[in-house]
Amino acid sequence: MNLYPEQGVRRVPSSKVKKEKSKPDGAKLRSVSNSAPEPSVEEMKKLYGDMLLIRRFEEKAGQLYGMGLIGGFCHLYIGQEAVVTGIQSMQEKQDTVVTTYRDHAHMLACGMDARGIMAELTGRIDGYSRGKGGSMHMFSLEQNFFGGHGIVGASTAIGTGLGFAHKYKGDNGVAVAYMGDGAANQGQVAECYNMAALWSLPVLFVIENNKYGMGTSVARSSAGQLYRRGEGYGIPGEQVDGQDVFVVQAAAKQALDYVRSGGGPYILEVMTYRYRGHSMSDPAKYRSKEEVDDYKQHQDPLIRLRGKMTEEAGVAEEDLKVIEKKIRDIVNDAAQFAQDSAQPAAYELWTDVLVEA
Amino acid sequence: MTIQILMPALSPTMTEGNLAKWLKKEGDSVKAGDILAEIETDKATMEVEAVDEGILGKILVPAGAQNIAVNTPIAVLLGEGEKLDDRTPSPASANAPAPPPSGRGKQGEALQGEGVQSENRDILYAQGAIIEPPPFDEAAFADTKPMTVREALQSAMAEEMRRDERVYLMGEEVAEYQGAYKVSQGLLQEFGSKRVIDTPITEHGFAGLAVGSAMNGLKPIVEFMTFNFAMQAMDHIINSAAKTLYMAGGKLGCPIVFRGPNGAAARVGAQHSQCYASWYAHVPGLKVVAPWSAADARGLMKAAIRDPNPVVVLENEIMYGQTFDAPVDEDFVIPIGRAKIEREGKDVTIVAFSIMVGKALEAAKKLAEEGIDAEVINLRTIRPLDRHTILESVRKTNRIVTVEEGWPFAGVGSEIASLCMEHAFDDLDAPVLRVCAADVPLPYAANLEALALPQAEHIAAAARKVCYK
Fold first, then answer.
1. Burial classification of residue B34, based on how many CB atoms lie within 10 Å of its CB (0-12 exposed, 13-18 middle, 19 or more buried)
2. Where are the domains of chain A?
3. Does the domain made of A39-214+224-350 have the CATH classification 3.40.50.970?
4. Cα–Cα distance between B455 and B365 in angstroms, integer?
5. C-alpha radius of gyration, chain B, whole number
6. Whole-prediction pTM value?
7. B361: which of A77, A123, B272, B367 is 20 to 30 A away, CA to CA?
8. Residue B250: helix, strand or coil by DSSP?
């Protein structure tokens, strides 16, 4: 079942750390997952639960949107669950995360509360931003999550700044700065690659390549390979299969170790796919139903993990059912909470514009 | 537990749609994520996915039905072992009204569209309250010495960097070169390259980087070689710095200073000669200050660095070398939001900021010779504007002229004119006059440049006009 044309890993090593030359495109490359330690059953269950939470949360968000309870933009992460789950699972506590507007999953992965996220989506007072941010704008200092940003490319500059602060404070933290394939073409991304490399900042740039920047495919928008865009700055880059959580984990581990040990920034391009449109109002007519179905049937990160657990690790169906029930309960509870929570009071309009000294 | 599946909306504006086809039939078991049906509008088609698992008990709206209102039940999902009971709604007719959204909050507050909340939305309140400015006893800082505006800015930054380890300075040529205009002279030598950082010429990138570092616990001072180049960084100043606190419901702020010379220098042409005061002052979430004298520069720079919010400090290149007496106290912090009356007078109020304060004072001197006693207000802060001090002055003089180096359209003067009309209409004995830059890109030729920028004589002429002299 190897339909993924770029299965495994392609990398551009830093000339500073490795002498081997970058491999030409299309070369057969090793799969990182083969070299990673076998995960324990408990670890697999945790990953499955984390990914399933994202899937079910997003489905519920889509449903609430359809009912008119969530407004505006709502960008769902369905199909990409292995990416953030795999990376977050390899981070350390002091690490920081910043991402784009497709951010619900990153918040869940950071350990933010499903209730608070869903209540923000419905625009209620118990939401993370008291109903004033919405789907794209939530923050948690407790979980080191620095937003949801609505301007394409902004997360890379802010992430570079998070890394700058880690280095300044000497807290051994790494900033994980997510962007989409569309953002990778923004000028500020190149500016930040330059500064991050120049000052050897601890930043892991993650390009979530889901093949389309809204309706424009990567092939129609981007010259060359995104993971190689750091070569001129001496930033190692790597392209990995984002539909296999173990491949993502192994790549993230290696990348984070490299960054944390003082190597400077690193670019991880994770190949993935979103099943839904760019946002809720996008009918996604720019791609074929066959393409979407192929991902859903053959490259679904949850089906892959589930298969590995039942077929290879001998996890019983009943055990998975327990996880699935638990996740469903969390999501239903969050949805109910988000509907029961009150709208912000009128005076909230005027608060939080400035910090009162 | 039976679950009603409702007609979903494709977008916030969709009110009805067609049920194109069913992909499941009655009696089918359904898992979460399964596609149940396809709906369509004139713009788009969407698949309806099951969120819960169960058995499709009854289809209430048949395939092909048109104009189904959003939130109309389209099917019933049964739990394991359940049967359809009599309470299930009958199939919806094509134009069945949608049930009201179930999203009413606990406190029963009106949802969007259910009436405008007029409480706290007074038309003038929405534009800012007229409150007394923060108190400040400037005379208490009696120990002064002559210094240039440049030295005032440098000493303020140095003292604040000594005071707070989190403060650092970043920008083009701020370190090795000692500042393009020598404002950061000596800072690299004292604080080292960790805290005084030369950047590449990438305003968008380093402004965003500084914002990220502020979110993660630091207090950056970002120097733009001139504010003209900050247009490259505008997105991060507005979207990332100014709006974050509000978007985070107060959970995360951005303590940062953006500073550098603003406005026209001398003969540097249109792209290097623009006043951005009204641009930044337009934005809630930013504070904007514009020093004129060395005391202003020292006190406002310290206030900006100590402030927990993003503050834009609009300096002026021509002022850097001018000398004034300024307090030397390390805690000489001018409250942001408080203007200063530089010259008291009774016949006409002249409001100015930055380099125009000097021109206003020059005009006031000429006017005095003619028997017109002008009061000159140095705004110091553009946002939040010290409305109180302006209005108090207008109520005394009944005449006002505003002065700025920026263009007239939607300028700071326009804002002050509105303020006076809204709050001091009956006190005005003449229309408010604005003295601004000519409404053209700044020319290079010496004579044209002088014509384009406000001069003391223009200010005096405007003052005479409002005094009907």
1. middle
2. 39-214+224-350
3. yes
4. 13
5. 31
6. 0.88
7. B272
8. coil
